Amino acid sequence: MPKPRVKVAWFDFACCEGCQIEMTNFGEPFVQLLQHVEPVEFREAMSEKTTERINVAFVEGSFTREADRARLEEIRTRSDIVVAYGQCAVSGGINALKNHMDDYSEAVYGKDCKRPHLDSQKALPVSAAIKVDYEIPGCPMDKAEFIRVVSQLVHGTTRVYQPSYPVCMECKRRETVCRYDDGDHCLGQVARAGCGAPCPADGIPCEACRGFVDNPNEAALAKVLHERGGLPKKWADTKSRMFAANQRGDA
Amino acid sequence: MTTRFLSDGALKQFVQALMAKGPVIGPVARKSRFVFAALEAPEDLRLDYDTTILPPKKLFFPTKQDLVKFDSPSSFSGCVEPKEQVLLGVHPHDIKGIDMSDKFYAANIPDSNYLAHRAKTTIIGSNVQKHYKHAFFGSVCRELKPQGHDMFLTRLKGGYLVEVRSKKGEELLALGKFEPASREQAAEAEAVNAAAEKNCPEKLNDTSDSVREKVRASFGSDIWNELSRDCFSCGSCNIVCPTCFCFDVQDEWNLDGVSGVRSRCWDACLVSEFSEVSVQGGSENFREERAERYRHRFMRKAVYLNDALGGPACVGCGRCSGACTADIANPTVAINTIMER
Ligand code: SF4
Ligand code: SF4
Ligand code: SF4
Ligand code: SF4
Ligand code: SF4
């Protein structure tokens, strides 16, 4: 007898929904995934909303309004497993760029900037509001990694392997010419691997879109970006805010 | 030992003849660097390369290698299928590195996958025509002589002095227009190789034995904190090293939860998860500090493996020095600093 399908639901908070789009781009693996999971809520691809029990909840986007806390808590209560996916959910992502600014609102929204729905606080990871069981980083998240993690979860594995080392490992394994050898800069030394290091292979720096490894050497990064990468001192110091603002020492 | 002379034109024809029999892997340009890759035309071969990003070990043990495919708990099949290949243009110090790998992977439980690829590979070495900026092969691991290769080419005027090193190498002579070599040509080739050792841009100042003793004695010293202050724990220095041999094995499951593949990939003792072990449901890291991991690589290269190898586990290629974006992996800098204290 086939196993009952695992009930899954997708929820989004402050984000561009790019990760959901990435998921609907899956093609064949997604069709396969549907043999094992039963989507009960997925805004990007279906309209119904439910209140039933969820086995695995996928949460996308950062926690940036206190008002969202109740919704996140409800998701947590309804779900056996919560997976934060995409860098916004994992670390606050690119949204967290605003965390160290207070003058963006008017520049972005103009005369509407005081309207209540535009009010937001610091962009924080989902884990700042509720307990998160698994994280799938990346901006956008990596399709292959998503499938890798989910295929283990739907079959009841509790310890899922994701590399914790920096992107340099994957970059070197595919024998890419280092950006620094090309007179460029790169953040691969502090970025969490798992993506397969596609950016340096395409000739562009790793921007650490998957956030930091656990113990990033931030001082060395600023030094190397400046001295070897040629970035002006101030830029070198703040460069990693792009995707890792909440993971930096000065968060 | 048989010696021959191969003119430039005859080399091209020889490479063509090798390519007609099977894959020929040699140094080819990749942007500003070089990599070992299958030649598509004899002209791709760049025997004037300085060094490659990854060592030739990848030909016997790819950086990621599928080992076993499984369909169910009881149905699985191996997926390593070694094919005859020619590895052409390996520098003498990299030949030493291969020789060390051969020993490492044959010891204890022999690594049948590595050894099968190795057995099917014919190795033709070549002299260093251009030094990598961090090379110091002239002042390290002099105890060991390059061995295990089948043929060796040294650049002379108008062609190459060819040394035949094995029976496999002897058989290759039938594939090309090899001329007799004179005693003078053989002597000239010897001088060329000796000069390459002497002219390395970087240098270790002390002998392997004195380095081993002093580095061993420095285990508890604060110098490791100093030297590793900028370390990213990124593992690049391990991945590019011809004498590193560690790997990680992972199972990847397909969506059905039954089938999948077991593969292995090159690992690095500089990264934190390398020394993480599961302990009673949780995990422990037996080299938790950055400095401890940084120190471990130097201990491995300069101290721990010397007895098994007869010399240090470093052939002086300089790849680690160039790969380290923090510029702290250079063995000549680190070891000379320790020796001077
Ligand atoms: S290009 Fe970037 S990721 Fe690749 S080795 Fe260099 S620093 Fe590391
Ligand atoms: S290489 Fe860097 S920027 Fe590119 S996908 Fe990986 S983590 Fe993101
Ligand atoms: S330690 Fe460095 S110089 Fe020595 S063999 Fe390894 S990569 Fe080459
Ligand atoms: S230096 Fe580290 S990675 Fe290299 S072989 Fe030794 S333990 Fe393994
Ligand atoms: S020594 Fe350099 S290459 Fe090695 S892990 Fe540290 S930063 Fe990376």
Mean pLDDT of chain A: 89
Low-confidence stretches of chain A: none
Which value, in Å, is the CA radius of gyration of chain B? 21 Å
Strand order of the largest sheet of chain B: 3-2-6-7-8-9-1-10
Kindly identify the CATH topology of the largest domain in chain A. Answer: Rossmann fold
Assembly state here?
Answer: heterodimer
Structure explained in plain terms:
The complex is a heterodimer of chains A (251) and B (341). Chain A is an alpha/beta fold. Chain A has two domains: 6-154, 3-Layer(aba) Sandwich (Rossmann fold); 167-244, no CATH class. Chain A is built from eleven helices and five strands. Chain A is globular and about 55 Å long. Chain B has 341 residues and is an alpha+beta fold. Chain B folds into two domains: 2-198, no CATH class; 208-340, no CATH class. Chain B has helices spanning 8-21, 92-106, 112-119, 167-172, 183-198, 208-217, 223-227, 236-239, 290-304, 306-309, 319-323, 331-340, and strands spanning 3-7, 24-30, 33-38, 64-72, 75-78, 85-90, 121-126, 151-156, 159-164, 179-180, 247-253, 260-266, 276-279, 282-285. In chain B, the strands form three sheets. Chain B has an eight-stranded mixed sheet. Chain B has a four-stranded antiparallel sheet with strand order 5-4-12-11, with no helix packed on it. Chain B has a two-stranded antiparallel sheet with strand order 13-14. In chain B, helix 6 packs antiparallel against helix 9 (290-304). The N and C termini of chain B lie far apart (45 Å). Classes of the chains: A alpha/beta (251), B alpha+beta (341). Chain A binds chain B through residues 29, 32-33, 35-36, 147-148, 150-152, 154-155, 157, 161, 163-166, 168-169, 172-178, 180-182, 186, 188-190, 213-217, 219-221, 223-224, 228, and chain B through 30-33, 35, 53-54, 58, 63-64, 229-236, 239-240, 250, 252-257, 265-266, 268, 271-273, 290, 322-323, 325-327. The structure holds iron/sulfur cluster (SF4) (5 copies). One iron/sulfur cluster is lined by residues 167-168, 171-172, 176, 178-180, 186, 188-189, 197, 200, 206 of chain A. The site of one iron/sulfur cluster has 13 residues of chain B, from helix 11.
